[in-house]
Amino acid sequence: MSQFPQSLLPDEASPEWMNKGDNAWQLIAATLVGLQSVPGLVILYGGIVKKKWAVNSAFMALYAFASVLVCWVGWGYRMSFGDKMLPFWGIPNTTLDQKFLLEKAFLGSFSNATMVFFQFVFAAITLVLIAGALLGRMNFYAWMAFVPLWLTFSYTISAFSIWCPDGWLAKMGVIDFAGGYVIHVAGGVAGFTAAYWVGPRSTRDRETFSPNNIMSMLTGAGLLWMGWTGFNGGAPFTASTSSALAVLNTHICTAVSLITWLSLDIIVFRKPNVFGVTQGIITGLVCITPAAGVVQGWAAIIMGLLSGSIPWYTMMILQKKCQTLKKVDDTLGVLHTHAIAGILGGVLTGLLAEPKLARLFYLVSDWQHFIGFFYGLQSGQVAAGARQLGIQILGVTFVICWNVFITSAICMLIRLVVPLRLSDEIIEKGDESVHGEEAYALYGDGERHESYKQFNAYGFA
Fold first, then answer.
1. Is residue 176 located within the same domain as residue 197?
2. 259 and 234, same structural domain?
3. Which of 14, 60, 194, 348 is the most exposed place for a label (fewest CB within 10 A)?
4. Residue 452 and residue 326 share a domain
5. How many helices (H) and strands (E) does the chain have?
6. Membrane spanning segments where (predicted)?
7. Gap between the Cα atoms of 349 and 295, Å rounded
C-alpha cells in the first residue's frame, strides 16, 4: 500500500504544468528515434557490409547505443543541457535523482525524465552514425573507449552550444531544428577524421565490399526513414502545427532526394542502383533536419533536389578524382551522406527559413531573428537575413573545426593504450577472429562450428 494519501497522487503524477498530449508525443517520438538505431542501423550495418563483417558492424552499433545511455544519465545530459560551466559546456552531473527527473524540463510541458530520454536517443544515433565510417577494420576495444570519450568531449559541446538556451550559438540565434549540425555535421566530420586515424580496410575489401544482404539493408533504411518522423517531429517539444509541418517536410524532401539520386544513377551508370537509393534516402533526411519546421513545402522540394545531387556528385564523382578523399577509407561515405548533406541543409536554412514558421518554433516575435536571407531580401530586412546566413555558416564552421581537433586528439590518446586498427590477419577473417561468431553459420546435424564452442559456457549443448 502507498504511504501517501490517495488524493495527492493524481496531482503528483500529473502536475499542472504537464501536458499529457505533449508528453505522450515526446515519448513516442523518442522511441521512433531509438528504433532508428536499434534495430534500424543495427540491421542496416549488418546487411550493407561483407558477410564476414556482419556481426562486428551490427555489434558496434548496439554497443554504442548502450554505452551512450550509461554515460548520458551519468554526466552527459547535464553537460549538454544543464547549468553553464563555460559558454559552450555544462557542468557534469547525474540525472538519476528522483526529484530532478520529476521536475519540469527546461523546455516543453513534460518532465525531465521525458527530456533526458528524448535527448539520449539523439546522442546515441550520432555515435552509431560515426561507426559507419569505421566498419571493417576498427579494433572493437578501441571503439569501446572511443564512444564515451567522444560523447563527453565532442557531442556535449555541440549540443550545449547550439541547443541549450545558455549556449553561445543558441544566444546568437543559430537555427538547427533537429540536429543537422549537432548530429550530422558533427558525426560525419568525426567519422571521416577517425577513419583517417584508424587507417583503411584491406585492399581486397576496399575494392569489393558488396552488401551481404540487400533486403536487410533496405529494411534498416526503411526503419531509418520512418523513424525520422520522431527525429524531426519531436524537435518542437510539443504536439503542434510546427511538429506536423516538420514531419511532412521531412518526407517530402526525402522522397525528392531519393528520386533525384536514382535519376542520376540511371543517367550516368545506366542502372537503378538499390545502394544508391539508400544513400539518397539518407541525404534527404539529413539535409532537411536543420530546417524541417521552419521552411515551406516548396523549399523542402528544393532541398530534396540539392540533397540528392550535390552529395551524389561528391560521393560518385569527386571522391574518385580527389586524392585527399581517396586516401581516407570512409566505409559508408558518412562524409558525403551526413557531413556534406548536413552542411548543405544548414546553409539552405539560412537562405530559406520563413520568419513566421521560425517564430512558431522558437516562440519569439522579433523579426530581426530567424529570418532566411531570401525572405530578408523580399521584406527589406537584408541585414537581418544576411546576419542569419552568417550565423549558420559560423555554426557549421565551429562544429567542423572542433570535431576535427577533438576526434584526432581522442584517437591519438586511445592508440597509446590499444591499437585503433585490427591486424591484417584478423581483418582477413573478420567476425570469426574478432568475436568468435559468424552471421550466417551453417552446420550439419549435430555439428558445431569450432568458434561456437564458447557457447557451452552459456548452457548450450
1. yes
2. yes
3. 14
4. no
5. 26, 2
6. 24-46, 58-77, 116-135, 142-163, 178-198, 210-228, 248-269, 281-306, 335-353, 389-414
7. 8
Q: 11 in a domain, yes or no?
A: no
Other residues' Cβ atoms within 10 Å of the Cβ of residue 19: 16
Neighbours of 258 (CB within 10 A): 25
What residues form DSSP beta bridges with 138? 421
Q: Is residue 5 part of a domain?
A: no
pLDDT of residue 437: 86
pLDDT at 14: 84
Amino acid occupying residue 66: A
Assess whether 394 and 453 both reside in one domain: no
In a domain, 8, yes or no: no
| Cell reading at 16 | 499542472
| Residue 111 backbone dihedrals phi, psi, to 5 degrees | -85, 165
Contacts of 337 (CB under 8 A, 6+ apart): 188, 279, 282, 283, 286, 311, 315
Helices (H), 289-381: 297-307, 310-313, 319-321, 323-327, 334, 341-352, 355-362, 373-379
**Residue where the block lists cell 520563413:** 354
Provide the residue range defining the domain that includes 213: 16-424
Any domain includes 211: yes
What averages of pLDDT result for each successive group of 10 residues across the chain (461 residues)? 50 84 96 96 94 95 98 97 94 92 93 97 98 96 98 98 96 94 97 97 88 93 96 95 96 98 95 92 97 96 98 94 91 96 97 92 74 92 94 97 98 97 93 88 52 48 42
Residue 84 has which C-alpha cell? 553553464
Looking at residue 11, what is its pLDDT? 62
pLDDT value of position 1? 43
Residues 34 and 55 in one domain: yes
229 and 84 belong to one structural domain: yes
Query: Three-class SS of residue 315?
Result: helix
The tally of domains found in the chain comes to 2
Residues 342, 440 share a domain = no
**Alpha-carbon gap, residue 21 to 243, rounded angstroms:** 13
- d(CA 309, CA 315) in angstroms, rounded, equals 10
Give dist(CA 314, CA 322) in Å, integer: 9
Give pLDDT, residue 3.
Answer: 53
Same domain, 316 and 451: no
